[in-house]
Amino acid sequence: MNRLSEQQNLALGVLSGGIEVSLLHWMNTLKSFAQQRLVRTDPGPVLLRPQTDCAVCEQPYPRSLRKLYRGYPVNCLNMTAATGTQFLFDGTLKRLLGEEGQGESALPAWVHLSGAFAAGAASGVVVAPIELVMIQQQLYGSSALHTLRAASAGAAVARGAGLTVAREAVYTFGYLGVCPT
After folding, report:
1. What pLDDT digit, counting tens, does each position of 81-119 carry?
2. Less Cβ around it within 10 Å: N or C end of the chain?
C-alpha cells in the first residue's frame, strides 16, 4: 500500500468497503433484528423458520431482498468511509515512516503496526457520527436528515465516539498491521 498513491489507496478502500457491504448487508440486518430481540434467537436455520417466528413484535425475519437490504445506503456510506480512510491513512503513514523505495514486505513491523493502528483511529473519527445516525434510524425509524439534526444537538454527536475510535484502531491494527498484504 505504500507504493500506491493516496488516490489509489482511497479508491481501493472505498471499493473494498462497497463490495463488503453489498455482499454482507443482509447479515447485518438479521443481526440487528436479533440484537433488538425483534425475532426469536433459538437455534436452527434462519431461513427455514416459520413466517410467524417473532417473539416480541410478531414480525417474521425479513426474507425479501428489499427488506434484507433496508438501510443499505447508510451502511454503504459507513463502510466505504471507514475502509477508504483506513487504506488512505495506512498507505500514507507507511510511505512517511518507511525508507524511500522500500517495498511493503521490507518495512519493519513497527511501521505496519503503528500505521494500521493510527489509520483505524482516524477512520473511527470519520465513522462515529455516521454509525450514530445509522443506529438511531434503526431504533426510531426517522429520516437521516432528522436524525442527524437531533444527534448534532449538544454533545450527542460524540456519543460512543471514543469506543468507536478504539474499536476501529484495534480492528485495523489486526487486518492491516498484523496481517499486512
Report:
1. 999 999 999 999 988 888 776 777 788 889 989 999 999
2. C
pLDDT digit string, tens, across residues 22-73: 999 888 888 877 776 655 445 544 443 444 444 445 456 677 787 788 778 8
Provide the grid cell at 84.
477508504
Assess contact for 168 and 160: CB atoms under 8 A: no
How much is the pLDDT for 59? 58
Euclidean distance between CA atoms 99 and 153, whole angstroms? 45
Give the C-alpha separation, 133 to 110, whole Å: 35
Euclidean distance between CA atoms 128 and 123, whole angstroms: 8
DSSP H helices, 71-172, are: 72-97, 109-140, 144-151, 161-172
Single-letter residue type at 36: Q
Count of beta carbons in the 10 Å neighbourhood of residue 181: 8
Taking the CA atoms of residue 150, residue 71, residue 163 and residue 178 in that order, the dihedral angle to the nearest 10 degrees is -150
Cα(144)–Cα(161) distance, rounded to whole angstroms? 19
What distance in Å separates the CA atoms of residue 64 and residue 157, rounded to the nearest whole number? 33
Residue 160 DSSP code = T
The answer to whether residues 176 and 128 touch, using CB atoms and an 8 Å cutoff, is no
For 54, phi and psi rounded to 5 degrees? -90, 125
